[in-house]
Structure formats: C-alpha cells, structure tokens
Amino acid sequence: TDAPALQQAAIGIAMGVTGTEVSKEAADMILADDNFSTIVSAVEEGRCIYANMQAFICFLISCNIGEIFAILIATVAGFPEPLTAMHLLWVNLVTDGPPATALGFNPPAPDLMTQRPRPSDEPIMTRWLLTRYCLTGLYVGLATVGVFVGHYMSLGVSLSDLASWSKCGELWQPPSAAVNAAGGALMCEDLFQGAGRALPQTLSLTALVCMEMFKALSAVSVDSSLFQVGPQKNPWLLLGVALPLLLHVAVVYSPALGVPGLGEAFGMVPLSYEDWCTVLKWSAPILVVDEVLKLVGRVVNRKR
Length: 304
Hints:
Calcium-transporting ATPase, transmembrane domain; 2 domains; transmembrane helix; HAD-like_sf; cell membrane; ATPase_P-typ_cation-transptr_C
C-alpha cells in the first residue's frame, strides 16, 4: 500500500530491512540500516558534493572568462598580445588543473545544513554566479593587460604609441620623444621583440597565474568568506596551489637552474624583486573583489 505514495513523493524512501520488496521497487532511496538519521548524513554529503562541483566548475569558468577578457581588451585597444598561445596552454593545462581538482576535496561549509533547499531545476551556474564571475573575470583581464601596459609606460611609451606599435617603424622614425625619455636609444625591436617583449608578457602571465591561485584559495567556499572557511581546511587545495606556483617559478628561473631553453620555449624570462612586487600589486586585489561580491551575494540571499 505504500508503493503509490512512494512513487508520488519527491524522494520516496523505503526501509532496507523491514520494508517490502514492492516498496523497495517503488522507492527512490532505500535505507539499508532502517535508521532515519542516515538521511541527514546523506543530505549533508550530497550538498557537499554539489557545492564542490559548483566550486570546481565556477573556478574553471571564471579563469577562462579572465583570459578571454585579457585577449579581448588588448585586441580592442590595439596593444601587443600580453599572452601568447603557449602561455594560454601553460595556464589551462598546468596551472589550472591541480587547484581545480583539489577543490573537489573542500570540507562542508559551517552553515551547509542550515541553507534552504535549492529548487530542483536550478542550474549549477546560476545567473548571479555567472554575473559574479564575469565581474571577477573582467578584473583579471584588466589586471593582466594593466601590468603589461604599465611596464611599457614605465619605459616612457605612451598609450597612443603602444596602440600603434605595429606601425612603430613608420611612425617612430626617429624614435618618438616618449621612447627617448626612457633612455634615448630604445627602438622598435628593443621594445616589441625578443626579451623586450618577453618581460612584459612574463609579468602578465605571472600576474594571471597568481590571480588564479588567489581565486582557487577563495573558491574553498562559493558563498562563505575566505576568513570564515579558510583554505587551510583543505590541505589538498594548498598542495594544488603550491605545485603550479613552484612549476611556474621553475620555468621563469630556468636559466638559474641550468635549463635556459625551458624558459625560452615558453617565452618567459626571469623576474626581479621589483617585478614580483608589481605582480602582487595587480593580482592580490582579486581577493578583495571576490570577497565583496560574496558579501553582496549573501546579503541578496538573506533578503529573499
């Protein structure tokens, strides 16, 4: 007699020990130990798995959005490419994979079981999450291009000169006053070829890698603050962030390690202490951006 009710229920649950075979066939879930408290544990585990899937997917999507914005901004502005195809492969295949995989081991959020049940038809990437990651991706794109442009501006190259870099040989004969202000003898090939271009591209790539590692640490919880659910609660995530950073540093400083061809193959050159300060100046604010957007999301959810 329970079979019709079990079929009509959103989730029909039957007893595994004392339940009839008919009720077990009609049920969606069977309690193997006939203990209803098991349902609570199952719901908690299911919510944790869902949250980790969401963190994994959202992290990868937000990283890709940032890369798209970086290329788009540079292309529209007419600037040289801040990232090469090899750089994008490096980011997508080497530096994104380990932290994304480690996000699957995130612990349950403290308020996981007090959250309201989400609609069964709600997509894993909600409209708010898509908006949020587009905004963080926009900052990633701006910062990636910003550190690239900032390097050239520190040499005395104006934005207009940088936007006309492809016509450098035609417009800068003799070299423009802006370029002369940087040292007097910088020509097109010194700025946009070889090491002259590899350094700002290495700055952009390193800033992008750092921002994505910061985002991975923040993604330990999709909604909760990083200060509430710290990354130290997921040691696999710490390892997943440390490993790509060490690999990246090894390639950047490959000449010092006796493998100069490695850095050349990836189009990277060693960075100075001042360069690292510049990278952190542009990349660290992504944590603030993400925390503010998380706060906005929590406020909006509480008002619903």
